[in-house]
Design goal:
- There is one protein chain.
- With 245 residues, the chain is α/β, with parallel strands linked by helices.
- The protein contains five helices and 13 strands.
- The strands form two sheets. Strands 6-5-4-7-8-9-10-11-12-13 form a ten-stranded mixed sheet, covered by helices on one side. It has a three-stranded mixed sheet with strand order 1-3-2, covered by helices on one side.
- The longest helix is centred in the first third of the chain and has 27 residues.
- The chain starts with a helix and ends with a strand.
- About 5% of the residues have low confidence.
Length: 245
């Protein structure tokens, strides 16, 4: 019994010490803003768009404080404000090091010309976005972003294995009309989405016959006709009506 009582007394003594120590430390200046300054910055990232200079510029003003006074959330917000940063993890390592892990945004497509869509579905601004010609080009009202992305996937699937071309972009107009852009630069006006599958199938079914004898392919196709569509070839100024099958 005496041994158990002694153990409890020691345990309480340790607990009280752990509670009192921070208070004493503050009183003695142990955790003062200038004590044990953070002088080392270690960054983990697979850099493609974020530069080391950008990170230094964001973090350095927040270093130099004491180890305990360095605000990790402040550092995280500063780095997270950089255009290409998706998320940030920040932690300290005793006695003077700040560890940062950065995850860059992965661009999926261009949005309305000068913005980007990340693979997480977030629209963001980034320098040089309008120069990324290898990305799909999607356009439409911001409120219908998810619908535009979905239609792009639908249009690409419709073309797979059915034509010697692919869809590289789609547009939703303010009036609700859909159109697609092919890898050759041709525009295909589709119209209402509920008619898209039928109209694209009708067009692609006869596409091989349509392009026979036209080495350069078509420049424009309007699929909004009840029983057919109209096509404009690169050398023509007006669209020529074609009858669908």
């Amino acid at each position: 019994m005496k041994g158990a009582a002694a153990t409890r007394i020691v345990a309480w003594g340790i607990a009280i010490t752990l509670v009192v120590l921070p208070v004493v430390g503050v009183m003695q200046g142990w955790f003062a803003a200038g004590r044990w300054p953070v002088t080392q910055l270690k960054v983990e990232a697979e850099f493609a768009h974020v530069s080391a200079e950008q990170i230094r510029s964001a973090v350095l003003p927040r270093l130099g404080k004491g180890f305990f006074a360095t605000d990790l959330e402040d550092v995280r917000r500063a780095i997270g404000a950089l255009p290409w940063v998706e998320s940030v993890e920040v932690r300290k390592r005793w006695p003077d090091t700040l560890l940062v892990r950065i995850y860059e945004r992965q661009p999926f497509a261009r949005w309305n010309g000068d913005r980007l869509i990340s693979r997480q579905g977030q629209v963001f601004d980034a320098p040089g976005a309008d120069q990324m010609g290898d990305l799909p080009r999607l356009s439409g009202p911001d409120s219908r972003l998810a619908e535009v992305v979905s239609f792009y996937a639908q249009a690409r699937k419709s073309f797979e294995g059915r034509a010697q071309m692919s869809v590289v972009g789609v547009t939703l107009s303010e009036r609700g009309s859909w159109s697609a852009i092919t890898d050759s630069g041709a525009e295909i006006v589709i119209g209402d989405r509920d008619q898209a599958d039928r109209r694209l199938s009708r067009f692609l079914d006869v596409y091989p016959q349509l392009v026979a004898g036209h080495r350069g392919g078509f420049a424009y196709a309007d699929l909004r006709y009840t029983n057919g569509f109209a096509i404009r070839w690169p050398t023509e100024n007006t669209a020529t009506p074609q009858v669908g099958s």
